[in-house]
Design brief:
Elements (H helix, E strand, L loop, with lengths): L1 E5 L12 H15 L3 E4 L12 H25 L4 E5 L10 H8 L3 E4 L10 H16 L2 E4 L2 H10 L5 E3 L7 H4 L9 E5 L6 H13 L8 E5 L5 H7 L8 E5 L3 H9 L3 E3 L9 H8 L4 E4 L14 E4 L4 H13 L1 H18 L2 H17 L1
Parallel strand pairs: 1-2, 1-3, 3-4, 4-5, 5-6, 7-8, 7-10, 8-9, 10-11, 11-12
Length: about 350
Amino acid sequence: MRIAFYAPMKSPTHPVPSGDRQMAQLLIRALEYGGHAVELASELSTFGREPDLDRFAGVEKEAAGEVARLCELWRRDGKPDLWFTYHPYYKAPDLIGPDMTAGFDIPYVTAEASYSERRNTGLWARTQSLVAQSVRQAALNICFTRRDREGLSIAVPDAVLDMLAPFIDISAFSAQPPAFDPSRLVCVAMMRSGDKLESYKMLARALDRLHHLPWTISVVGGGPARAEVMALFAGFPPERIEWHGRLEPGAVAGILSGAAIYVWPGCGEAYGLAYLEAQAAGLPVVAQHIAGVPEVVVSGRTGLLTPPDDSEAFAAAIERLLTDDRERIMMSDAARRFVHDERSLEAAAVRLAAMLPKVLNA
């Protein structure tokens, strides 16, 4: 098929790396792996961090311009077979795809659409209604987490829903088998305010309970809150912490494969591709049983998930894996098998290849 792809939050060509950009790129690769021709329909971002009516009016005007541009393009070069929108939600609704697919009578598909009743205030109530309309119009809505599926089914009871588990490209991890420093911890996360900073705060509190153990930690990531994050760990001996800053994916894979345990609380995580990357490298995970984290970590098999907002339990889980070599090694093997067997790009391509023809034949 010829597929028009659109990511209203962040284009897959955006220069700043993030989990959202990575997932958009992975979806395109999975679709192409299945033999489809994927074209980026638009790079317009509708994302707004705050509910700004004037800003949104400007975005709507830009979206109308994109609709006009695509209409002219498709009339000249022919329309695609399907439109695929990744991650429409209240802060980044799809203002292009629904009009294009209705006007040209082609199927509309969303992936990782989400809806939250508690956001129905002010401008967000309006943008959520647009998301609900998109979900209702879609021939298929692909959900990555049970939480998202439940939210959509409540908001739009007649929505067509299916599941695709979060996945990664495992090639960087297949080439280098794990070589653990048994006392080395690692985390990979952007440094910004909000949930990321809260996770760093919880990690610092947990590690503060573990001075009696000989751990060290590699911290990979950068961002506007870097100074605040480093201040959280200022009381630790400097030799305990290695600050790597933002790294390219290949370098991250190397750091992961040299550690023993991936530690990241995951406050508010949609699911977290870094958890899958860590497990692909053979690292068991310590995280909270919160949000979408259980979708990517199998508690008791590939890692330990602790109760939300309990830094004491989080510290105890880290200590458990630092001091029990047998359990850590068993979880390491299980984590690697889990991602390589079930959460690879190739597995996702097979799943998508089974879903999409049904949309065309509906």
